[in-house]
Amino acid sequence: MGKIGEIKYIINNRTINIRNGEVKDAEKLINLIKKVGKETDFLLKNPDEFNPTIEEEKNFIQNQADSEVDLLVVAETDGKVIGICGLNGNVNKRIRHSAEFGLAIEQEFCGMGIGKKLMKAGIEWAKENGISRITLKVDTNNYRAISLYLKLGFEIEGTLRNDKMLSDGSYIDGYTMALLL
Ligand SMILES: CC(C)(COP(=O)(O)OP(=O)(O)OC[C@H]1O[C@@H](n2cnc3c(N)ncnc32)[C@H](O)[C@@H]1OP(=O)(O)O)[C@@H](O)C(=O)NCCC(=O)NCCS
């Protein structure tokens, strides 16, 4: 449940390990989200708004692992967690077939194909677990992410006007995208 088989890739002479997130990753995952949050405005929270304790993060990871409808996958290299991909599903029957993607890669490792590998692992898991609709939300100026999602077959379903407000007060539109499996 919420499990994928471990996959290893060689990318730019580095071994990238794609596997389920584990409780032992809690501190590394907090640091990764904080780092990516400082590197880009594309995540949902400002860096100072993401402050779970290690215990809270461990509980989150354990809950994802125990869940039949959620998935947490990480990319690791040299013992360092450099990417995370989550699929959050629903238990209610009418929307049990639907899950939402979230994705973040450390800037130094972006553009190397790791996001695509993480998403492919998530899509395979979704297919095997009765999910037939994957959704996500993306800022309309997040060109790399949009390009990746289109390549994987996601389609834009709508525009969310003024979806996000940045710390300088400017608004960013978002797209809702979906992939039907
Ligand atoms: C968006 C993100 C997850 C993509 O992951 P990634 O590992 O960088 O993406 P990949 O290297 O797998 O690239 C996949 C595709 O995107 C495209 N791409 C890569 N770099 C790009 C760039 N600078 N501009 C436009 N498209 C780009 C390429 O077409 C690539 O496909 P290809 O390798 O088959 O040609 C990652 O960049 C990231 O975490 N960014 C910051 C946080 C974020 O934006 N999260 C998503 C919120 S919705």
UniProtKB/TrEMBL annotation:
UniProt-listed Gene3D superfamilies: 3.40.630.30
Protein name, as recorded: GNAT family N-acetyltransferase
InterPro entries to which the protein is assigned, alphabetical: Acyl_CoA_acyltransferase, GNAT_dom
Originating organism: Clostridium senegalense
Gene Ontology terms, MF aspect: acyltransferase activity, transferring groups other than amino-acyl groups
Keywords: Transferase
Residues covered by the N-acetyltransferase domain: 16-181
Tagged with keyword Transferase: yes
Domain of life according to the entry: Bacteria
PANTHER family: GNAT-FAMILY ACETYLTRANSFERASE, SPERMIDINE N(1)-ACETYLTRANSFERASE
Pfam families attached to this UniProt entry: Acetyltransf_1 (PF00583)
